[in-house]
Amino acid sequence: MRELTYYVAVSLDGFIAGPEGQFDAFLFEGDHMDALTRRFADAIPTSFAQALGVAQERSTFDTVLMGWNTYAVGLPDMRSPYAHLRQVVFTRRDPDPVDGVDFTDADPVDVVRELKAQDGAGIWLCGGGALAASLGSEIDRLVLKVNPVLFGDGIPVFGRSGYVPSAFTRTAATAFDSGVTVLEYERA
User: Fold this and answer.
1) Strand ranges, E, within the chain
2) Where are the domains of the chain?
3) For residue range 147-165, what is the model confidence (pLDDT) as tens digits?
4) Which superfamily is assigned to 4-187 in CATH?
5) Which of 29, 41, 80, 121 could form a disulfide with 62 if both were Cys (CB 3.0 to 4.6 A apart)?
C-alpha cells in the first residue's frame, strides 16, 4: 500500500509559513540542499528541477497533495508547479481548469484512502497546515526540515483538529552544518 508522507520545512517554533504565507526566512542555501535535492528530487517544482538539471524519476513520490494556499504560492506564473507528478489541490474555490492539476472539494481523507489503494509510488503532502490536520490520521511518515529560525507567528505545521494524540517513532535525525535538521518519523 502507498504511504502518505508530510515532507515540509518548519521553523523552530512550529510554523511552515508566516502569517501572510511568507517562507523566505527558510534556508535555501547550505549543505542540506544537496542532500535533500538528491533524496527528494520529486518534491522540487518541475521548472526548477529542469533548470538545475535534476532528474525527477517519480520513484519517491508520484502524487502531490496541496491546499489552495500552498498551490497559490506559484500563481499566476506556475499554474502546474509539479507537472511531473499527479497534482491534487483541495479547494472550495472554482478555479479555471489547469492541465495536470486536479482541483477538488472532496473529503481529503476519502481522497487519500482512494490514492493509497492504487498502485504507485509515495504520496507527498506538500501543505498546508489545515490540510495536514485534516489528514493527521492518514499520515504514515513525517519528514520535517527544521530550520534554525523563529517565526513568532504564522501557519502552524498542523492546524487545529482537536485533541487526538497520534504516536510516531523517530526513524532518523540528520543535522547539517547549515543549522537545518531533518527529523524523520513513521507512525508507531
Assistant:
1) 4-11, 15-17, 61-67, 86-90, 101-104, 122-127, 141-147, 155-156, 168-175, 181-187
2) 4-187
3) 999 999 999 999 998 898 9
4) Dihydrofolate Reductase, subunit A (3.40.430.10)
5) 121
